[in-house]
Design a protein that fits this description.
With about 190 residues, the protein is α+β, with helices and mostly antiparallel strands. The chain is about 25% helix and about 15% strand. The protein has one domain: Muramoyl-pentapeptide Carboxypeptidase, domain 2 (2-Layer Sandwich). The protein has helices at about 20-25, 55-70, 85-95, 145, 150-160, and strands at about 20, 30, 55, 75-80, 115-120, 165, 170-175. The chain is globular, with a radius of gyration of 18 Å.
């Protein structure tokens, strides 16, 4: 009699590097994905759809920040998440200034699915007062100026406690500290 060989099962555990929809992990997040509208610095709809994806490990980190903010009667208002490299090239042509837009030849943390642009809303999903509008390319939007706002400090504290790192020139931008470990992607939204 021949014994049956057991074949090893493939692991069904999700990969921390897979791109996931943020709303699956944070259902109360308010999505206002500006690049899927004309309400952005380009004045044009750049994204074909309003979809917010991040690497699973990054989205889980963001969910921790959302939980902390919920206890303070605040929720995430998300403006941008994963950005395909082909769209990063469009932004670079419009604003070739590395203080504000990543050079696509080097790669963007958004293009790795490891960066998020966001603000806060209250329990009625109304935006709270924040220092500047989104994508304001001025010193007023720099973190050292903007963190004088109570709401910006609240956001910064929750994001930092969840393990994110803020960008010096944009109070709304946060990166996963291990962003460089994720591959650049041009996967469609």
């Amino acid at each position: 009699m021949i014994a049956a060989c057991a074949t090893p099962r493939a692991s069904s555990a999700p990969s921390p590097a897979e791109l996931v929809e943020v709303k699956q992990l944070i259902p109360d997040a308010v999505l206002d994905l500006r690049y899927a509208t004309t309400n952005n610095f380009t004045g044009k709809q750049v994204y074909p759809v309003a979809r917010c994806k991040l690497r699973r490990a990054v989205a889980e980190r963001l969910a921790r920040a959302a939980t902390a903010l919920r206890a303070q009667h605040r929720h995430l208002l998300i403006w941008d998440c994963y950005r395909p490299t082909s769209i990063q090239e469009v932004f670079w042509k419009l604003v070739p200034d590395e203080r504000y837009v990543a050079n696509p030849k080097k790669g963007s943390r958004h293009g790795r699915g490891a960066a998020v642009d966001l603000a806060l809303v209250d329990d009625q999903d109304q935006p709270v007062p924040l220092p500047t509008k989104f994508d304001e390319f001025s010193e007023a939007a720099h973190r050292d100026h903007a963190l004088t706002s109570e709401e910006a400090r609240r956001l910064a504290a929750a994001m930092t406690d969840a393990g994110f790192v803020g960008m010096p020139t944009e109070w709304w931008h946060y990166d996963a500290p291990d962003a460089a470990s994720y591959p650049l992607s041009d996967e469609p939204l």
